[in-house]
Specification:
homodimer; about 110 residues; mainly alpha; Arc Repressor Mutant, subunit A; about 10% strand; DNA-binding; WH_DNA-bd_sf (chains A, B); ArsR-like_HTH (chains A, B); WH-like_DNA-bd_sf (chains A, B)
Chain lengths: ~110, ~110
Amino acid sequence: MSVPRFDEVVHAPNRLQICALLVAVDRAEFATLRESLGVADSVLSKHLKVLVDAGYVVLAKPAGHGRVRTWASITGSGRTAFAGHVAELQRLAATADPSSVEAGTERY
Amino acid sequence: MSVPRFDEVVHAPNRLQICALLVAVDRAEFATLRESLGVADSVLSKHLKVLVDAGYVVLAKPAGHGRVRTWASITGSGRTAFAGHVAELQRLAATADPSSVEAGTERY
DNA sequence: GACTAGTCTTTCCGTCATGGAAAACGTCTC
DNA sequence: GAGACGTTTTCCATGACGGAAAGACTAGTC
């Protein structure tokens, strides 16, 4: 199990979503990710670069078959970081009595 | 039950922590929060302002007894927003949801 | 009342993250 | 070689963030 640890790299909304997607599917195409996030090419490319530089994601560009298509997949340490980050968020959310979190109906 | 909804206001690390603390204790002193977060006065003040402007937190400055001390507490909509945000994060983190991704996991 | 101290707020400033458009760059396909 | 495609990089504008310092306000002290 991973240690709860807040991770700046993972925390940014778009990257959080990228990580979540990649954890779920193991690998996804660049275009698929871009559409899922609803951002411009350049934006996705930059976020992926950050994740790659952190060692959380690897890109594969299988050559030979038709057009170039970039596939992204999450690495082991990427999974660990993501899981750790989520664990930290849950720890934070739970510090706070879980029942009171659900009870946010109509108070005050 | 709150609807999972990503909330920019709540997502910022420091504010996430503020919300978590306030959900847990219902009210906290300014100084306590500042020490918990480990930030400067001005920083806490500004984050609280953002939360207050969003209607997620209210500040009380009970007068009469000794020095001025500001107490912060979370509102009903603050609880809802926090719970919703956490729910959204958990939804994201839910590893088994390939349907929403639709990435071609087939050959290439 | 003038002064001091305590407790936030606001202002100012530098830095960094972010997003999009456009240009640049490879890699095929013809 | 010319184009088309898919990704990356550059350029630029905007905004978030944090801290120090200055302000503002209140409550005691003399």
